[in-house]
Amino acid sequence: MPGQRSCVILGGGVAAYGAAEALRAAGFDGPVTLVSAEPVVPYDRTTLSKAFLQGQKTAEEILLKPVEHYQGLGIELRLGQRASAVDLDRHELTLEPGERLPFDTLLIATGAEPVRLRLPGFDLPGVRYLRSLADAQALREDLSRAERVLVVGCGFIGAEVAASARTLGKQVTVVDPLPVPLAGPLGEEVGAILAEVHRRHGVELRLGQKVAELRGHRRAEEAVLESGERIACDLVVVGVGVRPAVALFQGSGLQIEDGILVDERCATGVPGVYAAGDVANWWHPAIGRRLRVEHFDNAAQQGAAAARAIAGDPQPYAPVPYFWSDQYDLNLQYAGYPGPWDQVVLRGDPAAPSVTAFYLRQGVVEAVVTINRPRELRPGRRLVEARARVDPAVLADPATDLRALAQAARAAE
Amino acid sequence: MTAPEGYVAVKRYDEIPEGGIVPFEVDDDERILVKLEGKIYALSGICTHEYAELAEGDLEDHVIYCPLHGSGFDLETGRVTALPATQPLPVYDVQVVDGVVYVSREPRQG
What we know:
The complex is a heterodimer.
Chain A: E1 7-10, H1 14-25, E2 32-36, H2 67-72, E3 75-79, E4 83-87, E5 92-95, E6 99-102, E7 105-108, E8 112-114, E9 127-129, H3 133-145, E10 148-152, H4 156-167, E11 171-176, H5 183-200, E12 204-207, E13 211-215, E14 222-225, E15 230-232, E16 235-238, E17 242-244, E18 260-262, E19 273-275, E20 280-284, E21 289-291, H6 296-310, E22 322-327, E23 330-336, E24 343-349, E25 354-361, E26 364-371, H7 377-385, H8 392-396, H9 402-412
Parallel strand pairs in A: 1-2, 1-7, 2-3, 7-19, 9-16, 10-11, 10-16, 11-12, 18-20
Antiparallel strand pairs in A: 4-5, 5-6, 8-17, 13-14, 14-15, 20-21, 22-23, 23-26, 24-25, 25-26
Helix pairs in contact in A: 1-6, 7-9
Chain B: E1 7-12, E2 21-26, E3 29-36, E4 39-44, E5 58-60, E6 63-65, E7 72-74, E8 80-82, E9 91-97, E10 100-107
Antiparallel strand pairs in B: 1-10, 2-3, 3-4, 4-9, 5-6, 6-7, 7-8, 9-10
């Protein structure tokens, strides 16, 4: 047990929350300080584009735990405080406006930041991004007054914001350069299913198209696409991806390459310094390559894994990444390793939709997506975990008992 | 046979399939029974994260998983084993008497 060594958790998302819980659960009894630039304790960021935006949940209701919980764990909260410098040799952070905060161990859980579009007109009022609770509060406010919403980018944020805005009765147009929504992470087959769902709910899709500029007098009033089409709008929401929040650590001595590089135990090359969540690019021992995952579940679990390493019990962190997305009454879940695949096998009814997609590479099940078929998620996940090779015809056959298949794969592992 | 004090009769033990999740209601409160390795567990039927019926969920290694977002709850204690839920799931005491499953009206404390 490392005794009274101190730990600073830098970040206020679910990785920080997972770490705070796991440090104490692992018996770490030294001082723990959670430093977050956001003025609130960690909350469920996944609700911002859905239940929170639709007004079904309040800011209070999305907190993962109330403030008192951290007090009970003996964790000092430094909320609304931004770190302006770090000195890893001296094991010291500088917080704005100049306070020094020393640490024995540091967990970097700074997350990611939205990519800003640098096109003409995107600096006009009425252009919103969505990452933080403050962003969501501002967007919710704007949305209450808007009638025509333009969503730029049809990744998870774009697709979920479009669904929420439609649910609130707004006219919604979505523009994305790719031919279907979420083509990158989910592929054309599943993307086409999602496109159809959005169309059926009345969203105007402009796929395979790009915005050239926004125009307006005091606010964004109109988008001009590269095709020349003009789309009137009174609110623009941009969701074109995120970048790991590493600015503070440039030149600090840490290796940075699409995030902060860490090993399979969440440790950086600098002793006592760890990273977890969206900012961490880690070596995944089960698949033998690096991954950086921008989802809630990974952040929670990796934060906890890093905390156990800090508490003196390092274990290889080798999860099957998992995430979900809710759009309208559609529930999508994914379990698997992101990356290239060479075959997608569909099972079920894509039109309903009630379908499961398996992503295969050289015959191995790399990932599974369920759309409105939750009971196939965990058996599918087991196939992924077991690195199973399954005949595509067997996967597609509705008569195949996936549970039995998964059990056999697990037993063979 | 009358129910033990503070319990309600739910189902015959034999009617619950092994590995099954069976929904039931007590005073309009949705709950589930789970039979695993012959043992009966009774828990709240609604995920503590967002509204989702756990009867549609899945079992793996003595954990029940929410069908929508994968929150996991220990069958025995209701403890959260996987986020996004952070609040434990209420669990209820079970008695099997003369082949009938009885479940406590009130959740087990702490």
